[in-house]
Amino acid sequence: MPDIMHAKKRGQIKESSGGLIVLCALCLLLMSSCAKDAADSGVSDVTVTKEAVAEFNAKVSVHYIKISIADFGDGFNHARYQYPNSIPPWELYDEEQILGFAENMIYLQNPDGGWAKNLDFQRKFSLQELVDLQKANKSVAPVTYQKKTDSNGSTIDNGNIFSQIKYLAQVYKQVPKKRYLDCAVRALQWILNAQHPVSGGFTGADVYAITYNDDVMSETLRTLRNISRDDDLYGVFPAEMRTKAADAYTKGVECILKTQITLTLKDGTKILTAWCQQHSHDTLQPVWAREFEPPSVCTSESAKVVNLLMEDDDPSDKMKKAIVAACKWFDCDDVRIHGKKIVSIPCSGETLNGRYYDYERKMVDDASASDLWARFYALDSSFDVVTGARKPIQGTYPEVNTPIWCDRGCKYCETYNDMSKERRNGYGYTVTTPNTTLKRFAGWKQKFGI
Q: What is the pLDDT of residues 293-305, one digit of tens each?
């Protein structure tokens, strides 16, 4: 809104005995200001004229300092994997064309401030395509902390939403236009709205539960923490929202500590381990996700949770206990897989579940191989590992603290190689992420004298 009194003093509005000239001038200034505010925010309807197209094309073609798009890797992969070698049939922006990415984020943002998952923000859309997509998005149902009901609904899944916030904040540092900051702020508000009011957790797209899978908890909380503390990148965010981000981070860490799993081993020993991919918002217990993701202790997701906790410069005693226990569990001989490695064996190409494969993954013996970890380890008999399965369970749930090899159809297999080719190729049942976490843990222990 323009400062009318200052405008008059500067002679931009002249007095008239009838007041008509003054009134018209005021209206024009107000209309101009409102239109500029709307355009800057990126939420106005755009008329696609030749001039608008030319201006848009010129803007998104400019090269700036490159901003990493690594955080979008999972979503981009899902958007492209149906094409041979994941090469899509559309043109892509160079990484230096940061406004192309940013404009895509503005136009594809849902009305609630989030985004649908697996959008290819590197894709070169025409202005008309973006305007049409933005209009279509107006009917997308909003999502708060409940499970989304619209396939195009906003979700923190496959590296979504927190990645856009970080990217847009970096764009704003180079191109301080209000539209880019506003887009990021709307996304932050979505994240604040998405935190479950009871558990303090965040929900992904696969099941209504606290979700550690796809970095939903770890990366969302890392983003909230950084927004509250990183003045260099996020100091331009509203102070009140940064305070709320700090509170949300604290509540999320409390959720992490409450959901860490204690197992009772066969000899009766109780050990504090790590986390499942998903935990119930109500009971905080491990729950089924997809039909190949059973209740279990999960290594990959847990390693990322531990990394997050180790980044805190002032960890509480409870945080320290959680870190030490999880790393001790990662390091157990019973948990490490020795003398095995995963190899890809060439074979005739075929499409399985929408993905093209010309290889087959197998686990083979190799005494010189670095240690692996299974993605899933079995819970003890006190946990409910049946309720919530999407299909009738086949096979037998393994003994406590041993690897789980679960195929589609909720089918337990005895070994990695017994699972279907589609799952062995299409999902990470073994990981090495705990190794990196354990190396960081050594330095962390020294820092805090543990």
A: 999 999 999 999 9
